[in-house]
Amino acid sequence: MPFKTSAGSIFATALAFGGGGLGVLLTRGQATWVPQNHWLAPGLFSAAGVLTLWSVLLVLKSSSRVPSDPGRVGQTTGQPEVHGLGNAALAAGRDIHISYSTPVRAVPLHPGADKIPKAAAEAKSPNLQYVTSKEKRVFVSPLARDGVCDPRNVEEHGKSLQALVLKFENKIQGDRKIARAMNVIAKIQFRSTGGDRERVIDYGVWLNSPCNSTDMGTGDTRELLLMCVMEDGSLESFEDRREGNHQFQDEFSYIDVGCVDGLEVVEITLIDRNSQAVLNCKFRVWRDGIRFCVALKD
Quick one: which of 77, 82, 114 has its CA closest to 95? Predict the structure, then answer.
């Protein structure tokens, strides 16, 4: 509550202060001192008057520091903050300073209201996962717009090759929101078990894709061509050259073919170039008679 001063309090202070000095003299048995020294009486009471006036001025000075706008009091805590001598200073009529604090942040309506939910803080991203391997017949089209695809008719089936493909999925995972993978490429590295030979493919071939990348919606599965058995029985891998707007006029010019016989260690890295989601897998791949064998490596 602001400190207020009334005329009555000023008069009471003045009366108490002025009479106090004379009271001290009387209580000490000096009642006869004043008549005997009547020539000092005017000076004594003049001094008492000066002291009384000084006390009144101090009280007025203190009361003038109360803010003219009472509405400002209590904007933050409801009470002004007193710095200096505190309540004792108020009682003694001494000079004090009153200031007001501005709140730094709003108080939440309920506990935890100012916290960002965990689900909202996590940005959605694809969840690329290896699913399985599969042997199937594929048709290597001479045209770049068709690429390597499933046989669509009897003629294409007659020209198809036995192939090993790996299946990958943009898999749903519990309550997590999964984003669509828009531009996924596959980098493949083949190595011999001794590490002395290798073949590196910058862009693997996605089955039925018109370019060197693919997309995966939530829960979608895509097939990556790993290798094919050629007519002479050799194992060949394909690299997709269909990058950008490059036009391939010659037949089969959109792919590079390389032998991977004896290169059993295979490392595959999937990269979504939009979200930068990455999946890395290692396999051991070999032939047992006429069948492919695939094992995941740690």
Answer: 82
What confidence tens digit (pLDDT) does each residue in 5-38 have? Answer: 444 444 444 444 444 443 433 344 444 444 444 4
pLDDT tens by residue, 232-251: 999 999 999 998 888 899 99
Report the alpha-carbon distance of residue 292 to residue 164 in Å, rounded: 7
- CA distances (Å), 279 to each of 34, 253, 272, in order? 108, 29, 9
Beta-strand runs (E) in the chain: 81-83, 97-99, 128-140, 148-149, 161-170, 181-191, 198-201, 205-206, 214-216, 221-229, 235-240, 255-259, 265-272, 278-288, 291-297
Tell which residue, 156, 141, 170, 151, has the closest CA to residue 238. 141
pLDDT < 70 regions, the chain: 1-123
Cβ density class 86-111: b for 16+ within 10 Å, e for less: eeeeeeebeebeeeeeeeeeeeeeee
Q: Kindly report each contact of residues 251-259 with a partner whose C-beta sits within 8 Å and lies 24 or more positions away, as own/partner.
A: 251/142, 251/143, 252/140, 252/142, 253/144, 254/144, 254/147, 255/140, 255/148, 255/205, 258/199, 258/201, 259/199, 259/234, 259/235
Q: Note the pTM of the prediction, 2 decimals.
A: 0.60
Residue 137: CB atoms within 10 A of its CB come to: 15
User: CB-based burial of residue 31 (10 Å sphere; 0-12 exposed, 13-18 middle, 19+ buried)?
Assistant: exposed
| 3-state SS, one letter per residue, for 26-40 | HHCCCCCHHHHCHHH
Q: Give the separation between CA 180 and CA 168, rounded to whole angstroms.
A: 14
